[in-house]
Amino acid sequence: MDELTERQKLILTLVVRDYIETAQPVGSRRILERFNLDISSATVRNEMMALSEAGLLRQPHSSAGRIPTEDGYRYFVTHFVYQTDLPEPTRHTITHQFYQARQDVEQWMHLAVSILANHSHAASLITAPHAERASYKHLELISTQGRQVLMVLVLVGGEVLQQILTLAEPASQEQLSSAADRLNQICIGRTAEEILKSPTQMNNLEQDILTLLLGDMTSGDQRASGQMYLDGLTNVLSEPEFVESTDARRTLRRFEERSLLQDLLARTTGSGAVGIVQVLIGGEGEFEELKQCSVVLARYGIPGIATGALGVFGPMRMSYARNIPTVRFMADLLSGLVSETMLGDEPR
Question: Were 56 and a residue from 30, 72, 140, 321 both cysteine, which residue would form a disulfide, CB within 3.0 to 4.6 Å?
């Protein structure tokens, strides 16, 4: 497949682009009329037949034109669009949108997933930056009712863990605030392991709270990713492949349940380099639920400290030329924000 002629590469590119835009099989006449090629219809037909024999195009019906196969999309992505960049005005606009949210991780997530959905015209996902080893940043204890207390634990990187605790004995808000202040002094910047290795004299309330928050931090270490955000599912539901296919709509329901997303993120971006875009076309033989879909994913953040993942998903007929550079740019942008927030680096 690497030995295509220049004319075959051109025709494959035109078929893929036209099919992405129209969702209709592409015939030789359509190619000639739309793109004004200075060759005969018979030549185009012959080249399309050769591309079909190479496994890059297929004919859904005997009387129809051609559509790209999974290998056809993969060739198109690898040879023609993978290294493309977003236009400078688009990069500037997106960067400006993040300026006001520079120190607020929660705002980053909502803004990033919305921008991805809008620019890709597909569905988007992002996970909050998740520390490979949770480090303590700040604790708040809020009295609610009787012996119940709301514990809000903020980790380095901005991840927030909340839970309702039931104490052995009632405690006033003053006592809870004092305990939180004491723990904030002792634990700041430390992992659960480091806290356990540095025993400190504490009263019963402080010790009880410490035991519970260490459990939360340990659980956080075991999670593959931080909180997940989704947007743009309606973009995908309006595509012909999803309107007409029960299987495709079932895939979307799996995405909403998030179990598929968690598995996908863990297996495709868990050990990948930050900023490297991965494109899964038709599930790549690993994900049966994605056989009619494509997914564009990348990790962002600081390896060894905190990373997250972001991407877009939709029909195999998605706009790779738009989505790949968008995901790459957003990953680089968010990596810069994580670095600036956690390490105090200058913004990129």
Answer: 72
Which tens digits make up the pLDDT trace of 234-252? Answer: 888 888 877 766 766 677 7
Indicate the pairing of strand 306-315 with strand 293-302: antiparallel
DSSP 312-347: EEEETT--HHHHHHHHHHHHHHHHHHHHHHHH-PPP
Closest residue by Cα to residue 333 from 87, 55, 98 = 98
Beta strands, E only, the chain: 57-58, 67-68, 123-127, 130-131, 136-145, 148-155, 160-166, 228-231, 278-281, 293-302, 306-315
130's tokens = 């998740």
What amino acid is encoded at 188 in this protein? Answer: I
Q: What is the pLDDT of residues 45-98, one digit of tens each?
A: 999 999 999 999 999 887 778 999 999 999 999 998 888 889 999 999 998 888
The sign of the dihedral angle between the CA atoms of 206, 209, 211, 217 is negative
The span from the CA of 294 to the CA of 283, in Å, is 7
Distance CA 187, CA 137 (A): 8
Please, what sign has the CA dihedral across residues 254, 259, 265, 268? negative
Q: Where in the chain is the domain with CATH 3.30.390?
A: 136-222
Mean pLDDT, rounded, of the chain: 85
- As a whole number of angstroms, the distance between CA 306 and CA 130 comes to 5
For domain 88-129+226-343, the CATH class is: alpha beta
Domain with CATH 1.10.10.10 in the chain: 6-81
At the second CATH level, the architecture of 6-81 is Orthogonal Bundle (1.10)
- pTM for the full model? 0.75
Asked if residue 157 lies in contact with residue 342, where contact means CB atoms within 8 angstroms, the answer is yes
Residue 26 to residue 323: CA distance in whole angstroms: 22
Q: What is the pLDDT of residue 321?
A: 92
Q: Name the CATH topology of 136-222.
A: Enolase-like; domain 1 (3.30.390)
Residue 137 near residue 188, CB atoms below 8 Å: yes
Residue spans of the chain under pLDDT 70: 1-2, 100-103, 132, 157-158, 220-226, 244-245, 247-249, 255-258, 267-272, 342-348
